[in-house]
Amino acid sequence: MIRTDILIIGSGIGALSVASELCKYNKKITIITKGLRKACNSSLAQGGISVALSDEDDYHWHYEDTMVAGCNINDADAVMKLVSTAPQVILDFINTGMIFDKDSTGNLAFGREGAHRLNRIIHAGGDRTGLRVVEQLLRNITTNVNIVQNEMALDLRVNNSKCSGAITRSFKTGEISYYQADYTILATGGIGQLYPSTSNDITITGDGMAMAYRAGCKLKNLEFIQFHPTMLTINGKAYGLVSEAVRGAGGILVSDKGEKIMEKIHPQKDLAPRDVVAREVYARYLKGEKIFLDISDIDNFREKFPTVTEICEEHGVNVDDKMIPVAPGAHFHMGGVEATPEGVTNIDGLYAVGEVACTGVHGANRLASNSLLEGLVFGKLLADHIVKTPRKAEEFEDKIPESKLDRLPEKQEIQKQMMEFVGIVRHTGKIHTIIDWFEKFVPDKNFGKLDIINTDNEKLEIYNMLTAGWLIAKAAESRKESIGAHYIVED
Ligand code: SIN
Q1: pLDDT reading at 430 higher than 80
Q2: Which of 133, 243, 324, 370 has most ligand 1 atoms within 8 Å of its beta carbon, as the pocket-test mutant?
Q3: For residue 155, which of 216, 234, 94, 65 has the smallest C-alpha distance?
Q4: Ligand 1, closest atom to CA 199?
Q5: Which of 92, 170, 312, 432 is most buried, judging by how many CB atoms fall within 10 Å of its CB?
Q6: Model pTM greater than 0.90?
Q7: CA 44–ligand 1 middle distance (angstroms)
Q8: Neighbouring C-alpha atoms within 13 Å toward the C-beta of 335
Q9: 441: Cβ contacts below 8 Å, ≥ 6 apart
Q10: Does 302 qualify as catalytic in the annotation?
Q11: CB 78 within 8 Å of CB 85
């Protein structure tokens, strides 16, 4: 048994925000991550952080924009906590040495993204914000934080609704570890790899949500999956995100006939809410039209968007030609493990932060650049909560069930089915097809616990994808109206 005060599963901004606060209290902290420590969605985030810090802004407006984007089904108190705490958290973060981009007068430069009423997004290194934030948080954590790489959490250790840690297995050696922790934090990100095109890291296969479900956690709003309208896409294959900040800086979506496709669709045109833009791009894409982001009006594109430039050029698209081929891809899960802004779940000792958590801040559709913010702010609130809440993990013997898996689908098959039945548009009469499809692969139709010790990491990832997909499809089937990212067609 490996003893640690705090076990954090995942290594993105939520995880590092908690760790960088708690390490001040001399706690023993262990972070386990499936890949290398910077391999997470946060490192790939290009957009930035939205925060009402400019002289023209007011956090009440940030609150209103967040609620409108979320179709007003957001948890209003959680949104208010996020936007009102954000300015101080960001200023404190800057004081630790974080450098955000400045304008020509030396003040913070504020960029624009969809559904924000004014320029409110701060960036670092142009479109390298997520990576720069991760790097700064890594610098801020001290030696009592042990980051264990290439290790997968197999299951949470839960007895009588009390969590005492997790069981893990190394990808390299196959060694199984039993962690005993007073506080266990899920920070595993979302579910992007359940879809064929995604902006998410390769490790993001819905493990946190599936483990939480097996542990008896309440889950919420699972049907709400945000598709980003502009992934660099060549011959149907996605190669990475082309940030919405590109449209914020003047990029325009055009068809292969030169038509500005958002012109007649929404008053905010290219900066309309993400679900609206994604649906329009996707509808045309399905008709066989090629869609491009026309960047002719953006000066110094390479300097402003080094990551987008790099991704394009790695895949043979010259940004000097001013046309980037795009199509939508799965980007962010608004739903997840039901949690308060402090990360508290219905399981004692188990917490959730970042995309895996559903605190209700995003409602039915997340406002752009609110997710890095959520990780930073709610990560800090979770750390404060832990400091004020003494807890000792219970000792118990883990019971591993005997249930085994035999025939499993390939990951690509799951991705194809998810896009078809619970993708950008959902056909009410057909969602049941995918629920039945999932169930035929497993002996236990409720996707319960299984013999994780004798199921290898690859198979367990597939089981987690099936579990997460099944839960999403069931949530989509029971939400009978179109709202935000859940768009249905009755047939
Ligand atoms: C983007 O850069 O377009 C993504 C920003 C976000 O999802 O918040």
Answers
A1: yes
A2: 243
A3: 216
A4: 4
A5: 312
A6: yes
A7: 10
A8: 24
A9: 405, 407, 408, 409, 466
A10: no
A11: no
